[in-house]
């Protein structure tokens, strides 16, 4: 790509193309490097903690569980920039070809609408990430056991306190389906668990919510390796009402079967 660009006369369109393909290549490279680091850590941890599979993931090394807000932000931002570049090309085609009667160029409006949608999603993800910096989810026991309760504390040091708290635990499974056109994968939520929340404000002014979610006996445990069949995990979804707006936080928590 770089060689092809260097051999062409200068054109301002080179910048949208560099942005478009640069983000795609950087995203794929980042995904590969992240997978390599996770696999390297997992192999080392499996030798150190052979009977504690929840210790094979770097996210579960401490009782403070990280959220997925940062990953969500980068994902929606990448889609927004890519679609914005396609939208820019579509608008240029409309301005150039539509006066001559080529109405097919109106299809260029589609990536513009999609870019606007992902732009709004990116703004929401950015606001969630800003608010989430002052929030810590602390598990009272790691992992949570099936047949008992997941107990956790949500500590918020932000000056804006939540008006209400809603929590539920979801079990998510990746289903593999073989069809005539190939193999498809889809993600389904096959279990939801109710919750209890005890909300208070401590002496330092921090907002604290004690969360308790009962996990029924016989529920499946987390798939500790990504290539497990089927791949499955548990997400704790926390919805905080702050200043009339709902902020959604998602945490993947380890759930194991008692020995």
Summed over residues and divided by their number, the pLDDT gives a mean of 84
pLDDT < 50 stretches:
none
Taking the sheet with the most strands, its summary is: 5 strands, antiparallel
Globally, the shape reads globular
Order the strands across the largest sheet as they lie in space.
1-2-4-8-7
Computed structural class: alpha+beta
Which percent bin holds the helix content? 25-40%
**Topology as H/E string?**
HHEHHEEEEEEEEEE
The rounded Rg comes to: 23 Å
Total strand segments:
11
Portion of residues in beta strands equals 25-35%
**How many helical elements?**
4
Q: Termini distance? A: 55 Å
Describe this entry's structure for a reader.
There is one protein chain. This protein is of the alpha+beta class and 259 residues long. 36% of the residues lie in helices and 32% in strands. It contains four helices and eleven strands, in the order H-H-E-H-H-E-E-E-E-E-E-E-E-E-E. The strands form three sheets. The protein has a five-stranded antiparallel sheet with strand order 1-2-4-8-7, with no helix packed on it. Strands 6-5-9-10 form a four-stranded antiparallel sheet. Strand 5 (164-179) and strand 6 (182-193) form a beta hairpin. Helix 3 (69-97) runs antiparallel to helix 4 (109-132). The longest helix is centred in the N-terminal third of the chain and has 35 residues, at 14-48. The radius of gyration is 23 Å and the shape is globular. The mean pLDDT is 84.
């Amino acid at each position: 790509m770089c060689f092809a660009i260097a051999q062409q006369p200068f054109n301002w369109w080179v910048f949208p193309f560099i942005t478009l393909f640069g983000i795609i290549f950087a995203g794929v490279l980042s995904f590969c490097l992240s997978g390599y680091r996770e696999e390297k850590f997992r192999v080392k941890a499996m030798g150190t903690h052979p009977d504690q599979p929840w210790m094979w993931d770097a996210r579960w090394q401490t009782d403070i569980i990280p959220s997925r807000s940062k990953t969500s932000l980068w994902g929606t931002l990448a889609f927004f920039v890519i679609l914005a570049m396609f939208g820019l090309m579509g608008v240029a085609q409309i301005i150039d070809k539509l006066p001559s009667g080529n109405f097919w160029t109106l299809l260029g409006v589609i990536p513009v609408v999609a870019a606007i949608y992902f732009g709004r999603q990116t703004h929401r993800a950015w606001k969630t990430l800003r608010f989430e910096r002052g929030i810590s989810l602390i598990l009272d026991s790691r992992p949570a056991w099936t047949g008992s309760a997941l107990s956790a504390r949500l500590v918020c040091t932000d000056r804006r306190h939540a008006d209400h708290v809603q929590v539920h635990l979801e079990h998510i499974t990746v289903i593999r389906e073989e069809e005539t056109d190939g193999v498809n994968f889809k993600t389904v939520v096959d279990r939801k668990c109710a919750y209890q929340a005890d909300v208070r404000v401590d002496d330092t002014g921090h907002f604290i919510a004690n969360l308790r979610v009962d996990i029924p006996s016989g529920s499946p445990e987390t798939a500790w390796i990504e290539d497990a069949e089927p791949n499955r995990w548990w997400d704790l979804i926390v919805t905080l009402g702050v200043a009339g707006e709902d902020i959604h936080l998602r945490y993947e928590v380890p759930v194991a079967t008692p020995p």
